[in-house]
User: Which sequence fits this backbone?
């Protein structure tokens, strides 16, 4: 897997302090990785936030960059700490103690895909795990850090919109028909972003007809924790979109509703980008 670790889409002119990023949309499944796995080329994509990068591609039209990971989440998870190594899948790793993500098989090198099915025949070497982290995890985070620092220098603040998708089953359990949220916004219960900013983003989604929830069942993970520093003028908001809105989850293909959802999201993206325009107050400090 020697392709570039990420793709950065830049606007002609950066006019907003917002950075959009898609850490789980990578779909470069190298033959040697697939050969290691017990899963076929479709099953291994269960953890992938398929097509999220396409949904948020309009960001550059509104003066904001879009950073997209190329490596798939099943290969290396950019929304985990680089030290979240799973001894059940990596040789020579000591037990990390209590860590629910590692225990469930979802460390930085995942042991399972999101549906809980093992990825590998056995274990991989520690050297290989470190190689993945060095070639994909660190470059992505170095680039993301640089983008946010550039925006803070230029605009005085920075907003990270961390773009994800969620299985319909994650939000439909126990919900009555038509009541499950279609969008879940996460700010780690206020720790990663200012409430005024969250309220504005929430309202932007509601305005175009989405049902929105906050922090349940997804409040944000490593990326939100690492980059969300509202006391320093740097905010991180995680967005989870119900996959059933725009894709056939079983076949991992865009549905007939894809273009319509993308158009609705373009309006939201435009509103969020405007929140980060120079001279505008983004959030109460």
Assistant:
């Amino acid at each position: 897997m020697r392709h570039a670790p990420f793709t950065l889409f830049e606007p002609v002119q950066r006019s907003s302090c917002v950075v959009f990023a898609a850490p789980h949309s990578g779909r470069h499944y190298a033959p040697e990785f697939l050969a290691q796995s017990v899963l076929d080329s479709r099953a291994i994509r269960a953890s992938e936030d398929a097509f999220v990068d396409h949904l948020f591609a309009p960001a550059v039209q509104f003066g904001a960059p879009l950073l997209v990971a190329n490596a798939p989440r099943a290969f290396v998870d950019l929304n985990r700490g680089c030290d979240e190594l799973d001894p059940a899948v990596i040789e020579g790793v000591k037990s990390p103690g209590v860590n629910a993500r590692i225990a469930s098989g979802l460390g930085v090198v995942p042991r399972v895909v999101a549906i809980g099915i093992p990825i590998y025949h056995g274990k991989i070497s520690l050297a290989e795990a470190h190689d993945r982290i060095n070639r994909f995890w660190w470059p992505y985070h170095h680039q993301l850090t640089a983008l946010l620092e550039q925006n803070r220098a230029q605009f005085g603040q920075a907003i990270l919109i961390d773009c994800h998708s969620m299985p319909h089953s994650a939000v439909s359990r126990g919900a009555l028909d038509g009541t499950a949220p279609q969008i879940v916004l996460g700010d780690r219960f206020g720790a990663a972003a200012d409430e005024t900013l969250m309220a504005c983003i929430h309202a932007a989604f509601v305005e175009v007809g989405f049902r929105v929830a906050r922090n349940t069942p997804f409040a944000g993970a490593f990326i939100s924790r690492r980059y969300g520093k509202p006391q320093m003028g740097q905010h991180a908001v995680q967005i989870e979109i119900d996959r059933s809105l725009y894709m056939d989850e079983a076949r991992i293909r865009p549905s007939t509703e894809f273009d319509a959802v993308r158009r609705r999201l373009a309006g939201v993206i435009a509103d969020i980008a405007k929140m980060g325009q120079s001279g505008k107050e983004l959030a109460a400090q």
Summary: The beta strands are 6-9, 18-22, 66-69, 158-166, 183-186, 212-214, 234-242, 247-248, 253-254. The mean pLDDT is 93. Residues 16 and 276 are 5 Å apart (CA to CA).
